[in-house]
Amino acid sequence: MKKIHLLLVKAFIRPFFVTFFIVMFILLMLFLFKYVDELIGKGFEWYVILELMYYASAANVSMALPLSILLSSIMTFGTLGENYELVAIKSAGISLQKAMMPLLVLIIFLAISSFIFSDYMLPKANLKLGSLLWDIRNKKLSFLIKEGVFNNGIPGYSIRVDKKYDDGTLHNVMIYDHTSNNGIAKIIIAKSGFMSKDDNYLVLKLHDGVRYEESSGKNASYNPRQELTRMRFKETDQKFDISSFKMNRTDEEGFRGNTQMLNLKGLKKKNDSLSRELDSVNKFAALNLNSYYKQNNYTKGYTKELPKVKGIDAPVLKTVPKNQKLAVVQSALDQANSVMQTVSGRMTDHADRVKSIIKVQIEYQKKFTLAASCLLLFFIGAPLGAIIRKGGLGLPVVVAIVFFLLYHIIATVAEKSATTGSLTPFFGMWLAIIILSPLAAFLTYKATVDSALFDVNYFKQLIVNFLNRFNRKKQAEKV
Questions:
Q1: pLDDT for 4-20, tens place per residue?
Q2: What gap in Å lies between CA 328 and CA 298, rounded to an integer?
Q3: CA–CA distance, 61 with 77 (Å, rounded to integer)
Q4: Long-range contact list for 266-269, CB < 8 A, 24+ apart?
Q5: What span, in angstroms and rounded, lies between the C-alpha atoms of 268 and 357?
Q6: Helices 322-388 and 425-448 meet at what angle, rounded to 10?
Q7: Which of 14, 19, 268, 462 has the greatest number of C-beta atoms within 10 Å?
Q8: HSE on the CB side for 70, CA within 13 Å?
């Protein structure tokens, strides 16, 4: 490797890793903000949060990697252009394409790695992330006793304390027990208590209190008055079952068939099976509909084509006796409504099956578009850096965000159109790359010929020349 090539590789690797981790950090913060309501107040261990962030990081690589390649390539060639190192490289007889060659090899390696990652690692990460999110969403709120309010976290109980300390000591405890079948709550009042819990139970050790229980009289039919029982205690234990508050990890096999959790082989197999099921459903529907009309053809011996029925006095009804005409029409309407409902249900089922096949085909194309987007955004970012000749995190960041948003918006709109069936899955997933590829070629050409495409002074000079020419033309007309 030449020293110039080594210089370019070193100049690219440092901003690449910096921008990649910055983008990954921003995406992780957005992920946490999205699910913050489901994470706070449930008593998760710290390693569960770290595990969730780890799998979310793997799922965000598909967005972070292309953006970091675009941004780092703009920064690399912008810094080289700002320090006149590109001028020195070109003066040595090395063209921009040759200077880009080692970085192109590195980007191709990253593109191949991203394809392998999206085919082998990303489905596993999506599987782990999906199953963990499912468990988090279905975990009940952890029991937290707050001061001065009634806490209804445990079903059947309302608990209120005036003061709670970090060591578990409680003051002025009041418990309403609604678990009895008669609908009358039991009340426990204690001056102090101590809270402890294990895996399945929360235990409140209460001191100096009173228990109130209200019940019907012994002879409720003769004595309808209620009986109130009061029991004082020095110390008692109140246990609450909190086993349902624990987070149980779901078996991942139940999520393995989802589209985002399959590799290319699994997607192809699922697409074939869904296509066969759709074909069999269509054939069965056609045969069932034909047999239905054959079995319910009540015009025996009528060989000609039946006329269209437009009303109660249609010719086909003249063969029916008058006293049976109303019953025959009602029967026909019932059969028509039955057929219409059956067809409507099958049309909905058909649309759902087609949509499932489209999603599988879209996910299949995504495995390739990630690698292609890395190459595309490099051929946009490297020429842009050479043209704008600005390094650092200022103008390159703005330009990179603009072009990445353009790519992301086109890709998102095309994917939505492919999902609804307006575009084919292949064309929908590759539309952004098809549209932006001519732009990448144009920018590469402009950078090769040292174009001043983003030079403000160049455009100022063009405007000045145009105004001078316009003024000279106007003066010549006056003369």
A1: 778 888 888 888 888 88
A2: 10
A3: 24
A4: 266/123, 267/360, 267/363, 267/364, 267/367, 268/364
A5: 10
A6: 20
A7: 19
A8: 26
